[in-house]
Records
---
Amino acid sequence: MNPSSEDPTNTAANGTSGTAAGKALRPTLSFQPEQPYAYVRGSVRMDEFGVIADRLGELIGWVSARGAEFAGAPFFRFNTVDMGGASDVEAGVPVLAPPAPEGDFQTGSLPAGRYATVRHTGHPDQLFDVITAFRAWADGEGLTWDMTPLEGGAERWGCRLESYLTDPSVEPDMDKWEIELSFRLADAD
């Protein structure tokens, strides 16, 4: 999935609205086609996110070794979000054609639909504030996420992506990383 592709006919969200970490948000709305991807899934607490994040390099190596072509930036897909408990998270990479699954390396397709997207330049630790502002922006626009509340404040998401557009081997300074959030909307079908 290329969350940055924009539908120029759908500009309701292209204005500046909201702020996060002192920066103005510039969310966009776009339709995204279904996108094949390879992933490894884990159940992690947010304070132990490195458990799944550290698997991303291993996944990229596995995909590369099988000759699959990448179709975009690596990402984390949040199937559930539980700020006080364990979240179901996938470390993934979009591919043109997925290799055969093997062990805990699996393949699937990110769902087509309408997504709201926003970019953040800065440390991943700032994402909580960016996500809070992004969600407030969506509320103000009357948009509904493809998300179901669960017990205890947890959430189940249809598709919530956090894509890392900066290659850390090229730019090791996390304060300069570009990260794109792309959340599917409820009216996606």
---
Amino acid sequence: MTWFLALLALLLCAVAAFAAWWVRRRYVAVTVRGESMLPTLADHDRVLIRRGRRGLRRNDIVVVACPDSMTSWRQRPPVSGDLAATEWFIKRAVALAGDPFGAGPVPAGHLAVVGDGVHSDDSRSHGPCPVDQVLGVVVRVLSRAAPVATADEDVHPHSYGG
């Protein structure tokens, strides 16, 4: 009977390890840097990304490779799953292949991405983004950044309501 319990424990550990591997391969948490997605996402918000572009729709928030300053997204190899391999943008997918954007339709195999904020480095300056530059789609906000007091606000660190 003890060998059966040991085997069952081993099997449960293997299932748990496989589940952890699968979740980590499929999802990743990232921290937003910058303010191009304000007011939707703020600097230091944490979001959960579903890797890949399957089911990508207009208005989804996506993580894409940062374009090169000289060549935009042209001549970039397809993104890998390695988060440290490149720098990333987080933007809104506003147009998919065939949708109007700028001077004409978005080409096949591309999407147009823009930031929600007024100042954003995005498809308006770099053109449509190849879909092979998409790391994944935001599925939910995990945590919001704590509001930061500005010099104009009357904040007293030792005064509490109550």
---
Amino acid sequence: MADLFSVLALLVASAGCALSLAVALRVKRLLDPLTEEGGLGAGRRPSGIPLGTAVPQIGGMTDIRGEHVEFPAADGAQWILTFQAVGCSGCKQQLPEYKRFLESAGLGRDRVFSLVVGGEEGVAQYADELGDLSHVVQAGDSLRTVIEEMEVTTWPTYSVISGSGTVSYSAQSSARLGGSENPLSTVAVS
């Protein structure tokens, strides 16, 4: 009889472990943005901003330093536009690589814009890191329009904007900016 109770207890414990594992995997699927159930489809990595997407002209903005800035006009020269978020661990992890890229690209600060979603204190941390290389702008209502119209769904998103004001390259990894497929090899240095 004791053997029967031992086997029964082992079966109940096994069923409990299997149920716990099933629940954990289901929760992971719901929370993981790279799976179909997480909303981005087919278990593939999300793509960047669709190529050819026009950057909406929103007029003036104020960067974190209090400077009045505007996106560059369609002047024939490429520029950089990134989307980052205060609570995004991937954004913070990629900052050193992104800074190295900007330093090596030699772009003027007036051709690099980092739009950061989040509270002022968190945005200030981005300004500390990128302030000499990029205009860091806290995403307010007018910039949320840019985010929506450009279909930004993943942070970080790094994009190269053509001289005509449309997206010519977009990725979620700063490492891809300076890689072998370097999309910025033709960026006009100012």
